[in-house]
Write a sequence for this structure.
């Protein structure tokens, strides 16, 4: 069956924009906000950011109320440098039927390690450390660029328009349909390859952040690295298309690194079976040299989509 025919219809309206979805609800009167330019510069300097996240003093200022698990908006300060970050304590993780309890924070760190190993830098610097509510994942906050072009759109169902790729047909009202599309953007394409490696079960449209320096960062990687196939994403525009030559080279380096230094860094966060499954996914991508198709056995689109 052609890739496009395997994409399901989608019902419902799109959620708020990624910037709106990430606004913290204050628990104190003053919430320090991030600056897009400053946060982008720090995200592009992982050595400095990782030291700050690991060693800095962590202060909680608010929480993100739209998240299913406890997600706390914080600042971390060290040697005169202070920056916003996200802290997800293990104690605030909601039990899931398909992931072991208390493992989501470690999976976020593992996802960062894989992203760093690709050389693409698609996930903000992320560490596992103690905080005010116990051990948890701490990730640099990247403030979205307010001037960035939209990467998702609803278009005429006869589309897509040039420069866009189809995701699903969406019902937007009684008797009205539209085509949900994403841009044919190289940054998104790299993210699609990373998600296939991670087996990411939740790549919503609000789970990527355009930074002020033009980079794109993926966030929220707690439901990754399952052994069973769970890829659920909006980035189906390249389904069954050949991966780029660049991506093929990255996959080759990942395969080697998973047997070495990267595998050692992932070992504290994943089981032996999960590590083996990650290596098998990389091997499959190299063997087919194509972006994967949606699985017929698992919902291919996250809900809500944004």
């Amino acid at each position: 069956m052609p890739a496009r025919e395997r994409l399901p219809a989608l019902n419902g309206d799109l959620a708020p924009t990624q910037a709106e979805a990430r606004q913290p609800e204050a628990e104190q009167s003053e919430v320090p906000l991030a600056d897009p330019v400053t946060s982008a510069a720090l995200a592009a300097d992982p050595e400095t950011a990782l030291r700050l996240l690991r060693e800095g003093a962590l202060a909680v200022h608010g929480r993100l109320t739209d998240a299913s698990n406890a997600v706390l908006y914080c600042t971390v300060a060290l040697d005169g440098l202070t920056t916003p970050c996200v802290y997800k304590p293990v104690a605030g993780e909601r039990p899931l039927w398909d992931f072991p309890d208390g493992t989501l924070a470690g999976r976020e760190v593992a996802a960062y390690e894989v992203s760093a190993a690709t050389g693409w830098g698609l996930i903000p610097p992320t560490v596992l450390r103690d905080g005010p509510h116990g051990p948890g994942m701490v990730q640099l906050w990247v403030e979205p660029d307010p001037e960035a072009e939209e990467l998702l759109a609803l278009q005429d169902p006869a589309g897509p328009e040039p420069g866009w790729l189809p995701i699903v047909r969406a019902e937007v009202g009684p008797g009205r349909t539209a085509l949900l599309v994403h841009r044919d953007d190289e940054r998104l394409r790299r993210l699609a390859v990373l998600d296939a490696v991670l087996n990411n079960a939740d790549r919503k449209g609000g789970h990527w952040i355009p930074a002020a320096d033009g980079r794109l960062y993926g966030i929220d990687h707690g439901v990754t690295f399952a052994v069973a196939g769970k890829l659920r994403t909006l980035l189906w525009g390249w389904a069954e298309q050949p991966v780029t030559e660049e991506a093929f080279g990255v996959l080759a380096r990942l395969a080697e690194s998973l047997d070495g230094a990267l595998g050692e860094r992932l070992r504290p966060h994943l089981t032996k079976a999960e590590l083996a499954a990650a290596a098998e996914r990389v091997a499959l991508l190299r063997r087919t040299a194509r972006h994967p198709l949606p699985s017929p056995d698992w919902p291919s689109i996250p809900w809500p989509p944004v």
Q: What stands out?
A: Confidence is low (pLDDT under 50) at residues 1-21.
